[in-house]
Design a protein that fits this description.
- About 30% of the residues lie in helices and about 25% in strands.
- The protein is of the alpha/beta class.
- The protein has a seven-stranded mixed β-sheet, sandwiched between helices.
- A hairpin with a 5-residue loop joins β8 and β9.
- The two termini are about 50 Å apart.
- The mean pLDDT is about 95.
């Protein structure tokens, strides 16, 4: 019997359009480079496509002013499928044509064009668009309109209700047979046609039929500050759900006070007529918090990992101990969910320095500042703390680990 050989898989390239300035997202970095749960948006989008085995090349089209920024963003991505970025044009249409011309030498069978600020595109959506290109020259993904649609005049008056039957919200990726979309873009450029913000519209204007497929509802485009806030919330929720093993640890530390010029508390130096005595900087709140994290992790205590007998830690900043405990959590695939510290001292006053302490702890634990609590109380003149002989701290830490 003669063997049947499957036809070769079509080659697929992806153009990521990332040359815009994103002014509606507010001041700061261009939105495609803004951190989203600690990782730049465009890096997340690139990863979404590189995670798809059916994608052969990913070509970013960036603004000429962003070359150094882009290089820093992708420095840790080691994948030959990520092509060197090219410079886009003043408008999206020009950027897409520049990307297509750059790919002409590779001549892929298919090309997907995607907004770099849509990092939530799913592998299923990408695969659906590619598969549909077997039978259609132009495919775009979208979702049906389910809300009532109104046409509104300039003065805010509702003019009429638009029937929503057959209405879809178009998104990206939009997929094309490479030769067809390149020819269509070239033709519009030669005709001097003005701005066309949608590549499927370019095909429509050249007489091609466009096919719609269902995409994922979560494939949002990050445009406004509210979009970024929602994206952060979504990623945090997914991050937490991926780590269902919730653990809580507690820690306690105390250090003697002696004559000096100030104390370290919660990673902040506070001028004072005494200092805390210890092998390191004697930051009792950070020592207690480090022990709380290690306790939740079941990984010993601060004295085991940083023994006072070791000269390396003489005078060391206690923030290093805290960061090491956090590193141990991350090495287990976990995250810090919340930290709470109570400082027991008659003096100095903690209140004026509370926010600086919260910020230092949040940075060390790689969490938002609203996940850090810092409180202070006196001992009402009782005991060693009340007699100003020392300062104590109690800490609680919640961590989340994968099962």
């Amino acid at each position: 019997m003669q063997s049947v050989t499957e036809p070769p898989r079509p080659s697929v390239a992806v153009i990521l359009v990332a040359a815009g300035r994103g002014q509606r997202a507010g001041a700061g970095l261009p939105k495609q480079y803004r951190p989203l749960a600690g990782r730049p948006v465009i890096a997340r989008t690139i990863a979404a496509f590189l995670d798809c085995p059916g994608v052969d090349h990913v070509l970013p089209v960036i603004h000429g002013d962003d070359r150094a920024l882009f290089a820093a963003t992708v420095a840790d991505i080691d994948d030959d499928r990520l092509l060197p970025a090219i410079e886009g044009g003043a408008e999206r249409q020009a950027s897409c044509l520049a990307g297509l011309e750059s790919l002409a030498a590779l001549a892929p069978d298919l090309v997907l064009i995607h907004d770099a600020v849509r990092p939530f595109v799913s592998a299923m959506t990408i695969a659906t668009v590619i598969e549909a290109l077997d039978t259609h020259p132009c495919v775009l993904c979208g979702v049906p309109v389910v809300d009532t649609v109104k046409r509104v005049a300039a003065d805010g008056t509702v003019a009429d209700t638009v029937p929503r039957d057959g209405l879809w919200r178009a998104a990206t990726p939009q997929g094309f047979r490479f030769a067809a979309i390149l020819a269509a873009h070239r033709q519009l450029a030669a005709q001097g046609v003005g701005t066309v913000t949608d590549d499927a519209a370019v095909m429509e204007m050249n007489g091609h039929t466009v096919h719609m497929v269902a995409g994922n509802e979560d494939n949002m485009k990050l445009t406004t500050p509210a979009d970024f806030a929602e994206a952060e919330r979504r990623l945090r929720a997914a991050d937490f759900l991926a780590r269902p093993d919730v653990r809580v640890g507690t820690g306690y530390d105390v250090h003697v006070l002696e004559a000096g010029d100030g104390v370290w508390l919660g990673g902040v130096f506070i001028a004072h007529d005494q200092r805390l005595k210890g092998h390191s900087d004697a930051d009792a709140p950070l020592h207690a918090l480090t022990d709380a994290i290690l306790g939740a992790l079941g990984d010993g205590d601060i004295g085991q990992h940083f023994p006072p007998s070791d000269a390396r830690w003489r005078g060391a900043a206690s923030i290093l101990f805290l960061k090491d405990a956090v590193r141990r959590v991350h090495a287990r695939g976990g995250i810090i969910a919340h930290c709470d510290v109570t400082i027991i001292a008659e003096a100095p006053k903690v209140g004026p320095h509370r926010e600086a302490m919260r910020a230092a702890i949040a940075e060390a634990c790689v969490i938002a500042i609203d996940r850090v609590g810092v409180k202070a109380t006196t001992n009402e003149g009782l005991g060693f703390a009340g007699r100003r002989e020392g300062i104590a701290a109690i800490a609680t830490a919640t961590i989340r680990l994968p099962l």
